[in-house]
């Protein structure tokens, strides 16, 4: 891991992300790209056509606030590159990730009072749905970032193999123990034990070329995917939940169309997404 992007909006939750990213940067000797997406209103931009000094004033004011925000003791010893972009939304973060060849995006989000507030229309949602690299979402201070045990949500579909490979590569490098969590649903989503095992065998055969990880699969039955993942992460003592996403289609399309936003919304653990 060489470069980590942290979008900053000066909120308490973006500081949670900055603090978490700093710990990851120290552990991996990585560079931190602190990104402030400056949102200039149409009024200011229009006025700037007549008075460019006004726009320059607001830009300098934002840059100074950004500089002050980055004066944290926990950033000492870390190479921090501040980046200010004059965009209106956070969806352009993916362009920055490609330009700087970043490995991870770390974002903070409150997400405590409902899926609508956490994802729909939020900057976090825009980043998750547009990012080609993993996005780590935190909602509070992460005391330690060893992530020794990871609960990886998996439906054993062939389309999710690439996301699984990205996750395996990352967590092998960090020395984390990866458990694949499969949630069996009632009604038309229900599968018996033999059917699930066949899915797993096919998945690992095509993804790994062997069945070594069959013992690392945690099966559970629940009424919803998100409930199954959250309860399973507690049972296996996970430090982190990993979820494959369909990017622009949103988390709601992962796991054969079930709603996955609630996992990140209601989890007290950090959640990392991998693009399918």
TrEMBL record:
Region forming the signal peptide: none
InterPro entries: Rossmann-like_a/b/a_fold (IPR014729), Universal_stress_UspA (IPR006015), UspA (IPR006016)
Pfam families noted in UniProt: Usp
Domain UspA: 1-139, 233-274
Family from the record: Belongs to the universal stress protein A family.
Name of the protein this chain belongs to: Universal stress protein
Lineage, broadest ranks: Bacteria, Pseudomonadati, Bacteroidota, Flavobacteriia, Flavobacteriales
């Amino acid at each position: 891991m060489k470069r980590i992007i942290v979008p900053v909006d000066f909120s308490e939750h973006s500081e949670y992300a900055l603090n978490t990213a700093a710990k990851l940067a120290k552990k991996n000797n990585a560079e931190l790209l602190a990104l402030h997406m400056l949102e200039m209103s149409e009024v200011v931009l229009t006025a700037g056509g007549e008075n460019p000094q006004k726009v320059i004033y607001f830009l300098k004011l934002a840059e100074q606030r950004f500089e002050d925000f980055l004066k944290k003791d926990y950033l000492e010893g870390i190479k921090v590159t501040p980046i200010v972009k004059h965009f209106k939304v956070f969806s352009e973060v993916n362009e920055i990730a490609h330009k700087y060849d970043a490995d991870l995006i770390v974002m903070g989000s409150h997400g405590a009072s409902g899926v609508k507030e956490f994802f729909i229309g939020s900057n976090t949602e825009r980043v998750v749905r547009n990012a080609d690299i993993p996005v780590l979402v935190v909602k509070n201070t992460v005391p330690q970032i060893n992530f020794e045990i990871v609960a990886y949500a998996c439906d054993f579909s062939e389309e999710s193999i690439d996301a699984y490979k990205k996750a395996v590569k990352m967590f092998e490098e960090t020395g984390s123990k990866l458990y694949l969590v499969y949630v069996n649903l009632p009604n038309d989503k229900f599968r018996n034990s033999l059917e699930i095992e066949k899915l797993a065998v096919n998945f690992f055969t095509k993804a790994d070329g062997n069945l070594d990880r069959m013992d690392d699969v945690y099966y559970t039955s629940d009424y919803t995917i998100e409930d199954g993942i959250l309860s399973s992460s507690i049972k296996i003592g996970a430090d982190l939940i990993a979820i494959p996403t369909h990017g622009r289609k949103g988390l709601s399309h992962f796991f054969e169309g079930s709603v996955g936003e609630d996992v990140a919304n209601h989890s007290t653990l950090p959640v990392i997404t991998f693009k399918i």
